[in-house]
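Next up, sample data:
>
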Amino acid sequence: MSHDALTIRAATARDDDALARLSAREAGWHLGRLALVAEANGAVVAAIGLTSGTVLADPIDPNAGAIRSLRQRRYLILRQRGDVGAAQTLLRLLASSQNNTASTEEVSK
């Protein structure tokens, strides 16, 4: 059994290639402008759209722990704000949570 450090964070422009790779595998699904990504060992393994709740992951080797963590983090963000809210407000919330508390969990594959 291997243990990988899993990081949940806001998607940024540097994730465009990884998100394009994941969306290409999911036949046209798109996350929208606001998304969270899950990284394992420095690679994006899954993503979730904040407004849509759409999840993108490798269909051949989906990381169930990453998907579960993304859904939980999205729920907590939406619950804290009451709804998705204005894009700028949500981006500030995500940026401050990234700077203040990095979310790293031990997930077993």
The radius of gyration is 13 Å. DSSP finds three helices and five strands in the chain. The CA atoms of residues 7 and 104 lie 5 Å apart.
